[in-house]
Amino acid sequence: MEVSINMTDKEIEKGHVNKKKLERKYLKKKKPFLKILLSLILIPVIGGGIYFLYKGYVVGKEIGFRFSPSELIQKKKEPELKRDSSNKYTNVMLVGIDTRANTELLNTDVIIVGSYNHETNDIAMFSIPRDFWAKPLSDGKYFTKINAAYSINEGKREDSGLPALELIVEEVLGLEIQYHAMINFDGFTQLIDSVDGVYVNVQNSFTDYMYPDGNGYQTVSFKKGPQLMDGETALKYARSRKSQSIEGSDYARARRQQKVIDAFVSKLLSTETLLNPTKLMAILTSIQNNLKVSEFSLDDTAAAVNILTALKEEDSTSSTYSFVLDPTIGNFSLVSSNVNNQEYVIGPKEGLGKYTKINEFVDLALLYPALYSENPSIYVYDIGLGYKNSSSKTQELKENLKYLNIRFQGTKYSDKEGEYIYSNESEKYSKSVDILAKYLGIENKIKPEFVTVNTAGDISLLLGKEIIVEEINSETTE
């Protein structure tokens, strides 16, 4: 558009006029209108952003968020989560509390510690059954079910329940806990619904005719196979424990709870959830009145988002491993359902309050999570190394990899060379085979052709003579 500019003869004669300069001067006068227009567009956008941040801050503050303006001003290194004294793991205690209507229960029926390995990105989850016996008070002398510890301490002093439970769990598992979070049933349901449900692969079909619903009991049923669960369905799946099947126990329930948590994390890692402000706000709102957490900062939040984003990448090699303190764990050597010959008292086989072996198992499970999660039976055979040497090597393996089912099966051959380790069930124990092969320095991971009969155990380890490589010296004659 051409701009008409009136100039006096005097201005033209003096040569002080620059037409472009005057055009800019003219347009500058029109800018207030543009500012008003832009303001009308941007104010709702900026206002919405401020509301989002404010809402997130208010919700975060209520559940334990600690914000310092210096965290935004100061230039810091890459944010990191708190770690244990080994600087390798971040451990989080997750607690689910029973707050059913028409009851005054404050039992923590879900107690899980998730351990994140910063070197491998693997996550190991350890569940302590609700009926596991421990001392509820640090200065107490009596033992009771661990799910009552929170209520007992909270009754003595408000806000002391979670820290007290954290100390008990640290003692039982031998882990240093950096963060904790407790959610009630309503929060759990809303949390699952906030991400539009979770996909869970139901391992076994089961029906529970005595699922508590606040006014009595109802029947809940699940069929084997993958399915999308909303919050209410996921809660029933995670809480049911009265089925007349393999799923009808606290131990099976603990495994199902871990599956739901793993499914939620998987859904959270999906692009549409992790990067969607609306969904993140829905998550914050859903947990606002139903969650208690340990204190966390802006750096903690940023570090967690960084880890979640990294885990979301397609080339991520992270895995999640599940462990439950039930009587089968550690090759049936750690937990008893009749401690000190007291029926239905679940606790360490060493005796109430004695956790040395459980702690040792947890350390090994963190070091070799795939091996201890697959928990294979490992049968060792002498095929040429000699009975005595093979037996000695088996014993050494049992001492270093405690709580696995490792057995020496005697001599199978006496003239074979080399060492072999392989799974007797195709690829079922492939991770364990790889770990053991690396640990023992064995390259042969396929069943050798000379073994024409089946060997026992999930994994077979064959110990033969050392292969001697003869050196041929060529002599030259003059």
UniProtKB/TrEMBL annotation:
The membrane-spanning stretches of this chain are: 33-54
Asked if the Swiss-Prot or TrEMBL record annotates the protein with the keyword Transmembrane, the reply is yes
For this UniProt record, the keywords arranged alphabetically read as follows:
Membrane, Transmembrane, Transmembrane helix
The keyword Cytoplasm belongs to this UniProt entry's keyword annotation = no
Under the heading Pfam families, the entry gives:
LytR_cpsA_psr
The residues covered by the Cell envelope-related transcriptional attenuator domain are: 107-269
Q: Which family does it belong to?
A: Belongs to the LytR/CpsA/Psr (LCP) family.
**Name under which the protein is recorded:** LCP family protein
